[in-house]
Amino acid sequence: MGVSSSEHMFRAADRGASSGRHTSVARLFGTDGVRGVANQDITAELALDLSVAAAHVLAEVGAFNGHRPVAVVGRDPRASGEFLAAATVAGLASAGVDVRDAGVLPTPAIAYLVAEQDADLGAMLSASHNPMPDNGIKFFARGGHKLADDLEDRIEGRLREQWDRPTGADVGRITRLTDGADRYVAHLLSVLPHRLEGLHVVIDAAHGAASEVAPRAFREAGARVTLIGGEPDGLNINDGYGSTHIEPLQAAVVEAGADLGIALDGDADRCLAVDATGRLVDGDQIMAILAVAFKEHGTLPGDTLVATVMSNLGMIQALGSHGIKVLQTAVGDRYVLEGMRDGGFTLGGEQSGHVVMLDHGTTGDGTLTGLMLASRVAATGRPLADLASVMTRFPQVLVNVKDVDKGALEHNAAVADAVRTAESELGDSGRVLLRKSGTEPVVRVMVEAADTDQARAVADRLVGVVRSELAL
Question: Which stretches make up the Alpha-D-phosphohexomutase alpha/beta/alpha domain (predicted)?
Answer without folding.
Answer: 27-161, 183-278, 282-393
